[in-house]
Specification:
heterodimer, A: 242 residues, alpha/beta, Rossmann fold, 6-stranded mixed beta sheet, 4-stranded antiparallel beta sheet, globular, B: alpha/beta, 10 strands
């Protein structure tokens, strides 16, 4: 589904991402981990068209999308959520989700249809019904994350990029997020996920890719990767608890 | 350390806080003694951030009393409270993106000129900040910005350090380092009020804890006791 070759991003004198290869199959969840500043978000930003690669290619569903703009890539079927769940503070949760439905659809749909779809998706992410008409700035972190996820899903992606979805959630809330991520995958969406919460990464990923200083230093089955000494030294440390 | 006769460093009593007309914190009381590490835990939306924002003067719609070093501070300006020794590490990394890392840190030093020891301490904790000292803060990664936020608060040499989810976005390795550093600061006599979703780490490190649910304190006690409380284990530790 997704095939990345030699992807590189130079920012000033700094090589944020350096020659990374990565592939993702249908219905696969790949976890992207690494120390802070390793280039994880930059990699996701290049795939979603938020930033333009310096070198390398990105092939999505057989088509090269390298360097396309974010709105074009969204239309091709790639949606992303952000580390800090910013949104349109004055819109309601429902309206925010409708934006995804209106924009991402292949055909023009009416506001009524968009509203219907948005409501369904908010239910799918178990967003509280009584808060659909609440404006974004009055929502708490969990609700905000759910709206952000719902808006991404409303654009009907084939590939979903999640940048620290469970950051700021407690272990119980994270467990719920894990179930939701699996439910999304079971609906036929491939997922590339950045996450520091190892219980989440371990719980959902078919495969884990580890970045450090912009380069891939390890890749493999979750249990292989967390037992890799290089990964322990640069990323996990000795206090990790699963 | 926690004798009955000394006044607590921070004492909150009967605090009610409102967002517009909606009450989000109800009759909340807590205290933090000098040298103590105290954690406030609770699910998202419980009112933890609102509570500490009120303590540092960011929420004006509140009633009750908040005293810091014996002085009633409810309604005071955040700037004045910062100069009294109250520092907050905000949840949302409110850095100055168009200023270099070093200047962001210096802002934390208040008007002190003898900040070199604080700066060295911050750099030893987060060496990447030294490496990126001249870079605009906005070019840092999310986790690096989180380090900067913590570093900036430490630069003020605060008497009471309030941290709102400091481990957010940090690698497991760094989470361990940050918590060890807070323990070290605790041993050096700094007082800490910690809000953290990483409940296990928080309870491991702190002396006491309060549990906030739906805007009300529902439990308080020694951290070790809370760790073995069945409700806490089920609701927060994911057992």
């Amino acid at each position: 589904m997704l095939s990345i070759r030699g992807l590189t991003k130079q920012i000033g004198g700094l090589c944020a991402v350096n020659g990374v290869d990565l592939s993702l199959g249908d219905n696969e969840i790949v976890g992207l981990v690494g120390p802070n500043g390793a280039g994880k978000t930059t990699l996701l930003n290049m795939i979603s068209g938020i930033s333009v690669p310096t070198a390398g290619t990105i092939i999505f569903c057989g088509e090269e999308i390298t360097g396309l703009r974010a709105h074009q890539i969204c239309k091709k079927g790639i949606a992303k959520t952000f580390q800090i769940a910013e949104s349109f503070p004055g819109l309601t949760a429902l309206e925010c989700t409708m934006i995804g439905a209106l924009f991402g659809n292949h055909r023009k749909i009416s506001m009524g249809e968009a509203k219907f779809e948005a409501a369904q998706i908010l239910d799918f992410v178990s967003f509280p019904q009584e808060k659909r008409e609440t404006i974004i700035k009055n929502l708490n972190v969990v609700e905000l994350k759910k709206v952000q996820l719902a808006r991404a899903l409303a654009s009907k992606p084939k590939l979903l990029l999640l940048d620290e979805l469970t950051t700021g959630l407690n272990p119980k809330e994270s467990n719920e997020a894990v179930e939701l991520i699996k439910k999304i995958r079971d609906n036929g969406v491939s997922i590339l996920i950045i996450e520091h919460v190892m219980s989440v990464i371990m719980g959902v990923s078919n495969r884990i890719v580890v970045l450090d200083h912009g380069e891939k230093i390890a890749e493999g089955h979750p249990y292989e990767v967390v037992n890799n000494q290089k990964v322990i030294d640069t990323y996990l440390g000795d206090m990790h608890a699963f | 350390m926690h004798s009955e006769t000394t006044d607590p460093m921070l004492s909150v009593s009967g605090l009610n806080v409102f967002h517009a007309n909606l009450q989000v914190v109800w009759d909340l009381s807590l205290h933090v003694d000098k040298g103590e590490l105290v954690t406030l835990i609770g699910p998202n939306g419980a009112g933890k951030t609102t509570t500490v924002e009120t303590i540092v003067g960011l929420n004006k719609k509140a009633s009750g009393s908040i005293t810091f070093l014996g002085e009633n501070i409810l309604g005071m300006h955040p700037y004045d409270l910062f100069h009294k020794g109250l520092a907050l590490v905000p949840e949302k990394r409110e850095i100055f993106p168009k200023m270099p890392v070093i200047e962001n840190l210096m802002l934390g030093a208040r008007d002190r000129t003898d900040y070199s020891a604080s700066l060295n301490h911050v750099y030893s904790l987060f060496p990447i900040l030294k490496e990126r000292e001249r870079q605009m803060a906005g070019t840092l990664s999310g986790g690096e910005q989180q380090m900067l936020t913590i570093g900036r608060a430490l630069m003020s040499n605060p008497k009471l350090l309030i941290l709102d989810e400091p481990s957010t976005g940090l690698s497991p390795l760094l989470v361990g380092q940050v918590f060890r550093s807070l323990e070290q600061l605790g041993r050096e006599g700094i007082t800490v009020l910690l809000l953290e979703q990483n409940v296990r780490h928080a309870l491991n490190m702190c002396h006491r804890g309060y549990v906030l649910e739906n805007g009300r304190i529902i439990k308080e006690g020694k951290a070790k006791e809370l760790m073995h409380d069945p409700h806490i284990q089920k609701a927060y530790l994911g057992f």
